[in-house]
């Protein structure tokens, strides 16, 4: 939808008609009887030009709340501070396959009659030869970086001051025309917590940025569902629904990071056995059983959760689970299956608040750490040193709301013996 206001062109994208009322507007007391009132829901507003969802842009610039705390380069603090008058540090350029990302510190100064102040903020810009659509900007650049910064500062992060440079071949000899996306009159970054500054726990070092960020962008596109499930932000829904989303995301992550087996010996043996019983099962029934065994027996959800946790490395796995990773995987998989498929569960573990919360938070932690390690965050003792500095992770590792061995024993006493009270 295109239009203009005070001579400025605007584009409204992803518009949905919510209501269409003929006659006086019921929300006002003064309206003519011949009015026609329409209410539209708009997902994105672009100021400065008329575009479509397929319009391509050659460059993008934006800011993120919390980015100044996350970015390790500053002219005001850290070992890189220079003596004498303030000087903003140089931009950091990170090459991509067909373009680059630049992250730079900008300063804003205020000169009053009695007070002078200087503040820093960090901006990100990106370009690539093939250009971006607005949707590709979100999926390839702003979304992954927003999630990465949110994980680092451990609080919700939003994109603001998003500007686009159209891919206009005729504009090479004049200043670029900038389009503002969802502009606000008072765009300013939210102040991070006073004690929050780089280097943060769960964030790459400056030296690792040139390799980590390109790997993270590719990983975020490949594993968008798991990343969306663990990005810090307010969540809605019951505890059970949140757990379902996160455990399903963990299963998705395991499938994305591992090749599925091409051979299924057990499933094939079952199919061959059914085939020998001629007349009892037709081909379609044998195929259904073969598929079910492949999906639910060969690689179970429990095995996938256990693999993700163990891939954090023995040091991090021991730090987070204290030797209870196997019963955690068993209980978490059981809870997900009961909630998702409506199985009868006399043990009632799926209704235990401690089990639900413990399974939710630990699964979120496993997904988050597994994504960071896959992108290049160091594992082993280097990771546990970072985890020791993370208040949320440290509290989670010391949690006592869920006794995984006791919960597993409640579900299946034959497989999981009663834990020794002296060991708890």
What does this structure look like?
The chain has 424 residues and is an alpha+beta fold. The protein is built from 14 helices and nine strands. Strands 1-2-3-9-8-4-7-6-5 form a nine-stranded antiparallel β-sheet, with helices on one face. A hairpin with a 3-residue loop joins strand 5 and strand 6. The model has no long low-confidence stretch (mean pLDDT 85).
Instruction: Determine the N-to-C terminus distance.
Output: 63 Å
Strand order of the largest sheet: 1-2-3-9-8-4-7-6-5
Using DSSP, what is the number of strands?
A: 9
Instruction: Give the helices and strands as they follow along the chain.
Output: EEEEHEEEHEEHHHHHHHHHHHH
Total helix count? 14
Name the average pLDDT.
85
Largest sheet geometry: 9 strands, antiparallel
Helix content: 40-55%
Q: What ranges have pLDDT less than 50 throughout 5 or more consecutive residues?
A: none
